[in-house]
Amino acid sequence: MGSIRFDKVDKVFGPLTGGVKALDSIDLEIAEKEFVAIVGPSGCGKTTCLRMVAGFEAPSAGVVSVNGKKVTAPGPDRAVVFQQFALFPWKTVRENIDLGLRNKGLAKSERDERIASALRLMNLESHADAFPHQLSGGMQQRVAIARAYVLDPEVLLMDEPFGALDAQTRVVMQEELVRLARVNPRTVLFITHAVEEAVYLADRVAVMTRRPGRIKEILDIRSVREAENWDRHQKIEDVMDLESFVHLRTQIWKSLREEKGPLGV
Amino acid sequence: MMGRKGLASLTSVAAALLLWFVVTTLTGLVSPGRFPSPAEFWQSLVQIATRGYAGAPLLAHAVQSLKLVLLGFAVAVATGVPLGLWMGWSRRAEAAINPVFLLIRPIPPLAWIPLAILWLGLGDAAKIMVIWFAAFVPSVINAFAGVRAIDRPMIEAARMLGTPRWRLVREVIAPAASPMIFTGLRLSLQASWTTLVAAELVGALLGIGFVLNVAQQDIYPGMILVGMVTVGLLGWATTWLLAMAEQRALAWNMAARD
Ligand SMILES: Nc1ncnc2c1ncn2[C@@H]1O[C@H](COP(=O)(O)OP(=O)(O)OP(=O)(O)O)[C@@H](O)[C@H]1O
Ligand SMILES: [Mg+2]
To answer: pTM of the entire structure?
Structure first.
């Protein structure tokens, strides 16, 4: 459960007013429990791809489907972690996490159990009754991840989830996400600007072209990770030092460089 | 509470009272026929509080005015806020309702008074209707603007979590718009008092506006001032209560601000 498929997907914004072609014939298949990261130049349509899987946006042509079923509306089977967290500031951490569970109509005892385990998983136990504004950015993002994970979604959609965090917090969150992915693997579509992050986290990395965005190439990270046994290293910096890691990173980097405009933007 | 600021405002109030005493009583710069002295004010207050004036004691007038304001305000808020939320949420509702709204809005609420009296007489109903018309508008506009200002990701997060419609309104849209809603309520409350006094001035048999009207006909400056001060205090007290309610309801927001 949880496979994602883009089938010749085009997206044109504002077709009535001339139109901006954001995506051009995107073909991409993400297998169940696979972690795919998308990298690409700014404005190439990464967010648009994710929003179409989430059901916030409809393709102009082609089909986006999850489990072979065409996506038509948002739903808790496809949990989203937003770049700007999008927590409800008037709800406590616990209430934020609880909303999705209440929407599912679960009994109080089961909800409490699930919330407790999500809080434990994200190291938030001592902040359960805090309001979001009382937390640091890293903690807020952990709440947003807990809110998504607690639904036990088939698909997890993350749009630059660590983009707003400082470098240290970011590393901690990346390691945490890897740990989470081991404990409880999910299908993940992950968008990022950071090439290292993509290589560190993903099974495959898709590189997109400049707008109108197309999939330029897809790199298999997983086979390298397994062959070189990256997982024996606990810390992200140790993995990043490995020759195989550097090689993949450079390859993606070069591919992205070709896509940048004359000014390198 | 009572810091430097409190001390400063206390000083300025004391200075104003002293000035009042000086110009009316000590120097006689302002003649008593135009503006009452503190002593006259006090006598008028004692008269209306104990023996009554304009047909009833002060308390009865005050209770009557307060009752009408609270009723009119409640009706206006109970109808205005939901309408504003709905218009903010649904483009179709906005398209349907806004034209009517724009047509009626330029009419000053006080201009409805004659029609209200014609329809409903001099009783409470006419005044509640006029207050409703006046207080309705700020409630609608601010609730509407509050919804329109909500961050889109917030709504998308709620939809992604599978939040059903009513829960979305109650737990996401209304709280997200609540800072603006409260701004609307404050303006509505002010409008309620303004309108009530005007309506009572025009036609009433009880209430602070009626006291003011009778005192004017009696050429009784002391009593006019008593009426003005009473209405000021009532207005201040209701505003204060609303501010307290706001502080409780928006605790999450206030804390985020500092
Ligand atoms: N709602 C919209 N209306 C009009 N144009 C839009 C809309 N959303 C996105 N676009 C345009 O579509 C293109 C792709 O946008 P998108 O947000 O998907 O890019 P992105 O790859 O996520 O960029 P970034 O890396 O900066 O986040 C951009 O040119 C953007 O201006
Ligand atoms: Mg984006």
So the answer is: 0.84
